[in-house]
Amino acid sequence: MAEEHGRKWDRCLADSARTGFGVGVVFSRVSFHTRIASLCRPNVARCVGSGMGLGMGYSNCQHDFRSPYLLHGHMVKVDQFSW
Amino acid sequence: GMDVKRICFTSLSLQKCLCGNGAAQPMQSCRRYTSAGDSGSVAGKIVAASLLTVGGGVGGTILYAKWDPKFRAAVEKGVPYSDQLFEMTIGPPPPPPVIPLPKKPVKVEPLQISSVSEASKDSKQPQQMKEKKVAKEEKPPVQQEAPPLPQTIEGENTVVLLFSSEFMQRFSSVQWSHAHVGVSTAEECKECEHEAHAHVVKERPEEVVSARLAAQDRCFNAMLHQTEHVKFLKTTFLDDTLGSSAKLTLQAIGAQEAALSAIANHTSKLKEAMDAEGPSDKTSAQWRSLEDALNERSRAADEAGAALLKAKEELEKLRKVINAAKDSKIDAARPQILAAEENLHSMVVDLDRAVGKVQTAQMEAKIVSQYSELVNEAKAQFQKELDSITPEIQANWKGLTGKLSPDDLNSLIAHAHRRIDQLNRELAEQRVREQIHIEAALDQQRLENQKTLDKAVGTAISHSREQMRLEQEKKIEDVREVMEAEMRTQLRRQAAAHTDHLRDVLKVQEQELRAEAQEVLSSKLMEQETNYRRVTQDQLDAFTLDMNAAYARLKGIEEAIDSHVVAEEEARKAHQLWLSVEALTYSLKTAVADSPTEPLETAAKAVRESCADNEFAVALASALPEESLSRGIYSEASLRARFYQIRGLVRRVAMINETRNSLYQYFLSYLQSVLLFEPEQLAPPTKLKPEDLDTFKLLSYATYSIERGDLELAAKFINQLTGEPRRVAQDWLKEARLTLETRQVVNLLSAYANAVGLGTTQAP
């Protein structure tokens, strides 16, 4: 369980980072191409985006920590010929 | 070392050794030598050493061969000329041990059944000898013999042959031919015996009968033997005399015949001379021949007389012998005697006949001579008268033919006339006295005739009497023979009957004896059998007793063994259990660092198997947690290590529970853990108070326990955690629980195994 805890934390951080950056990047990109470009400088956009992302990540983490018994499943491809 | 050297020196060349070229192991020793010094001295040393070794080997072999002959034999077999060497040095090999052969059984000579043949032999011998002797004697009189002679002799033989037993007839004529005169009787006997033996062996069943017959014949023959002997002698004597008499008789007869012929000759010559009035020289020759004839006749007459005498003597002798033989009263010789008598008689008859012939011839001759004398006398008278009348005439008949004068003639005629007258007168006178003379002559003649008649009649009578007597005797003899033959046949029949009777009796006896013997045998057998049965029964009983005892013991032993086996089994099981438990215990120790132990499945299975029939153990074994079986459990050390990790984590999430579980709280908790310092180890109280249920305290207690090795207490304390720390420590707790459980079970099992082992193990 401790490992799980650690894993959770890893996931959390990773997710947060990912989502943060990802959202940020996407937001920045999107905002760059849309008309709301006036108020959105790339950095700002990225910050906003990453902020949003981080926030999303945070809440995800929290949710994840709060529901400890929810398992994260992995999709495992089964080789069809290896019975 | 020595052997190696020998091998080296004998099997390989010296050069190789010297050069050290040989790669094989034995060459190492050579190399040592080569490496030692220069080759010359080494070669010399090698040669010397080799010689020494060879000599030593040979000497040793010889000595050992002297001591052990088997070794010597083996060496001789293997090495070609070693036997010579051995012989030279040690000497000849020892002789092989003599095994005394069992003596050959002495040949049992076949029993010789000789008596029969012997008996027959005896009876045969004199026959044969007699036969031969008679054959010899037969030879001389054979030429001019009187017919009955050989027949009688042969008849004699046949009779004698017939006399012998039938058994004789079985022998082939070969035996007769074998028997030569002059062959020793012993040889004959042997021959005959062998023949007899052979015959005997072949014809055994008939032998019994014939043996009996022969036994009887033996009696005859025994009797006969003596009589035969005597008879033999007698008969030979008889035969001798017979032969001699026959000879002499023949001689006499011959002489008589000769005399007869001489007389006849003389008479005829005389007649011729009388009748012939021829020339004087012829007459003188005639007279001379006449004289010769006369001489001849006289001589022959004398001879005849002498022969006659001799013959008569001999015949007398023969008669005496015959009488003697007759007196001895040997029945069997009778025919011979009879034959001899007959011969005698015939001889006598012939002799008499011849004598009679001679006598008649003589008488005739006498008459003729008388007549010739008369004629001569008359002639002489006439001549004398003539001379007296005519004295001048020479009495020369030759001159008479033409020289006579008429006077002489006249005187001669006158004389002749006178003579004629005289003669007429005498004739007349004679005629007158004729009758008287004739009567006288007739009387005389009658007398003489009577005499001769009487004599002849007497002789004829005697002859005929003799003949009749002989015939009678012969008849008697024949009858006797016939009777004898009949008696013999009857006796033989009796013998055969006796034999049959004996055979029957013997058969009966045999059967009786057989039955008796069988009875005895069966009784003995029965006895033996009962004895045997008793003995075997005893043996069986004893054996059964022994067997029972043995069986009982065996059973006891088996029981003991079984119980032992059971106990052993128990012990084994206990040991096995203990071993498996130990294995299990050991497998608990196989946890390496942080990896769990190997799965306890196998060990647990072993344990289960080793205590299959023990419920407690089985229950215990099955009480092992699944995880430990499949995955194994962590060692205490690893748990301890892990605990520290958990501890840190637990400290960090100490504030989080179901209600306070936001990230901010997480942060706060983390802060708390950083800022809060509690003693790492706190000795846990014996009683827990509610304020002791603080996370950190609990952790301290648990640390303390774990440091002291008390996992259980630590686990207990950890179990008291709540909220997130509990969740975090959950797996550790699980592991700890698993380990504790397993350990507990193992300990129990071990204790149980120990207890069981202690129970089963017996102190020596």
From TrEMBL, chain A:
<comment type="function">
    <text>Component of the MICOS complex, a large protein complex of the mitochondrial inner membrane that plays crucial roles in the maintenance of crista junctions, inner membrane architecture, and formation of contact sites to the outer membrane.</text>
</comment>
<comment type="similarity">
    <text>Belongs to the MICOS complex subunit Mic10 family.</text>
</comment>
<dbReference type="Pfam" id="PF04418">
    <property type="entry name" value="DUF543"/>
</dbReference>
<keyword id="KW-0812">Transmembrane</keyword>
<keyword id="KW-1133">Transmembrane helix</keyword>
<keyword id="KW-0999">Mitochondrion inner membrane</keyword>
<keyword id="KW-0496">Mitochondrion</keyword>
<dbReference type="GO" id="GO:0061617">
    <property type="term" value="C:MICOS complex"/>
</dbReference>
<keyword id="KW-0472">Membrane</keyword>
<comment type="subunit">
    <text>Component of the mitochondrial contact site and cristae organizing system (MICOS) complex.</text>
</comment>
<dbReference type="InterPro" id="IPR007512">
    <property type="entry name" value="Mic10"/>
</dbReference>
<protein>
    <recommendedName>
        <fullName>MICOS complex subunit MIC10</fullName>
    </recommendedName>
</protein>
Automatic annotation (TrEMBL), chain B:
<feature type="region of interest" description="Disordered">
    <location>
        <begin position="114"/>
        <end position="151"/>
    </location>
</feature>
<comment type="function">
    <text>Component of the MICOS complex, a large protein complex of the mitochondrial inner membrane that plays crucial roles in the maintenance of crista junctions, inner membrane architecture, and formation of contact sites to the outer membrane.</text>
</comment>
<keyword id="KW-0999">Mitochondrion inner membrane</keyword>
<protein>
    <recommendedName>
        <fullName>MICOS complex subunit MIC60</fullName>
    </recommendedName>
</protein>
<keyword id="KW-0175">Coiled coil</keyword>
<feature type="compositionally biased region" description="Basic and acidic residues">
    <location>
        <begin position="119"/>
        <end position="140"/>
    </location>
</feature>
<comment type="subunit">
    <text>Component of the mitochondrial contact site and cristae organizing system (MICOS) complex.</text>
</comment>
<keyword id="KW-0812">Transmembrane</keyword>
<comment type="similarity">
    <text>Belongs to the MICOS complex subunit Mic60 family.</text>
</comment>
<keyword id="KW-1133">Transmembrane helix</keyword>
<feature type="coiled-coil region">
    <location>
        <begin position="301"/>
        <end position="328"/>
    </location>
</feature>
<dbReference type="GO" id="GO:0061617">
    <property type="term" value="C:MICOS complex"/>
</dbReference>
<keyword id="KW-0472">Membrane</keyword>
<dbReference type="GO" id="GO:0042407">
    <property type="term" value="P:cristae formation"/>
</dbReference>
<dbReference type="Pfam" id="PF09731">
    <property type="entry name" value="Mitofilin"/>
</dbReference>
<keyword id="KW-0496">Mitochondrion</keyword>
<dbReference type="InterPro" id="IPR019133">
    <property type="entry name" value="MIC60"/>
</dbReference>
